[in-house]
Design goal:
about 375 residues, Rossmann fold, 7-stranded mixed sheet, 15 helices, about 10% strand
């Protein structure tokens, strides 16, 4: 088995990942946005992705008769947003939209403009969703909160929260945001990031969204980076996350991951080496593995094979073991990508990689990657 794995990640290969790409796209984490027109759904997508409102508006494509979806990034998507357009239509049937949302792991976000108490269409839709899904976790986002005085805002938020919780139950988390440029509200500058392009309560919003779909926490991390190496990795992080998501998705299925996961990781290394302008050959491959520690290759081979066997157990294998395998594959792929970016950066700069620093980056990325996979909580 070790020879097969060794051959799969041999740097002379550049595997075709068309099938893995298709499978991953079919199982994208989905953030279902429910709210009236003007409630801030496009602005929420902008806050997460950084895409322009024009790109977002043009990027939504119909996925049911009453909903449209937007994938991000376009070429190698990590996340899908689903926007229900039919809330205001008489006799709106949420069943098709619910099935679309359930095609991947999902989170439900309800957006309500703070000064808009008329939410009958939204409440009718939520009633259908609850009947199908039960009182699953829901995030209530109160938008445009800075347009009202503090006293009015408190009253508006309390009323709209009561409307939602009365129907949905207690399993509702809420947050108050405003997507208008912060320089329009200078009195609030002390309570937010100094970056005026971010929305009011941006960090808290991302934290709440990541509780539903963990990968958002890594995608939307706009914190300052101490070194040029870290900045370079951040520029490539979404690509690394896409490969991690592809590895995790294919490793859900019994025995499939034994072939697909090493192939996906090999493709990732080829791509990263090319973008750093580093020649990717057997010598570079051996040096990278050496920096990761002498036992890395053996542990990699043993763990990859070991997590395939439990997935063959009927019932339990297709749930608990599959989720565990997916979380590990996501975390491992993300960590390999993080370590490789450090290695390639040092090589492209004419420096020698520090094995201890590389291994520390790998361990930290492995921990964060497993958490961001969205599968770790399932096992």
């Amino acid at each position: 088995m070790f020879e097969k794995i060794k051959n799969a990640i041999n740097p002379s290969q550049n595997p075709d990942l068309t099938q893995a790409r298709d499978v991953q796209r079919q199982h994208l984490p989905t953030l279902w946005l429910l709210g009236k027109t003007g409630s801030g759904k496009s602005s929420l997508v902008h806050a997460i992705t950084g895409e322009s409102h024009i790109e977002i508006g043009n990027g939504f494509e119909p996925c049911t008769l009453t909903a449209s979806s937007y994938t991000f990034p376009k070429q190698s998507p990590l996340l899908r947003f689903m926007d229900t357009r039919g809330l205001a239509e008489s006799g709106y049937d949420a069943s098709h939209d619910i099935e679309q949302a359930l095609s991947g792991s999902h989170g439900i976000v309800v957006l309500v403009k703070a000064d808009d108490p008329e939410q009958s269409a939204l409440l009718a839709a939520l009633k259908q969703v609850k009947k199908r899904l039960g009182s699953t976790q829901l995030l209530l986002v109160h938008t445009a909160v800075l347009s009202s005085s503090k006293a009015d805002r408190e009253r508006q938020v309390a009323f709209n929260t009561q409307q939602i919780t009365h129907l949905w139950g207690a399993n509702v988390r809420s947050i108050e945001v405003d997507f208008a440029p912060l320089d329009a509200h200078p009195e609030q500058q002390t309570s937010v990031s100094p970056n005026s392009t971010e929305c009011y309560h941006y960090p808290q919003l991302i934290e709440q969204l990541a509780a539903q779909i963990p990968v958002i926490g890594l995608m939307a991390n706009h914190s300052e980076h101490a070194s040029l190496e870290q900045q370079n990795f951040k520029a490539l992080e979404n690509e690394v996350l896409w490969y991690a998501g592809s590895a995790a998705t294919t490793d859900i299925f019994p025995a499939v991951g034994l072939v697909t996961v090493p192939a996906i990781q090999a493709k990732l290394l080829h791509s990263l080496a090319n973008q750093y302008g580093v020649e990717w050959n057997k010598r570079a491959f051996s040096e990278l593995i050496g920096c990761m520690g002498g036992s890395f290759a053996v542990q990699y081979a043993v763990k990859l094979g070991a997590r395939q066997v439990p997935k063959l157990i009927p019932g339990w294998g297709q749930t608990v073991a599959a989720a565990a395998a997916a979380a590990i594959s996501f975390g491992t792929t993300y960590a390999i990508g993080r370590a490789a970016c450090y290695y390639f950066y040092k090589k492209s700069s004419g420096e020698e990689p520090n094995p201890e620093e590389l291994q520390a980056l790998y361990r930290d990325a492995l921990k964060r990657g497993k958490k961001a996979s969205g599968y770790e909580k399932d096992h």
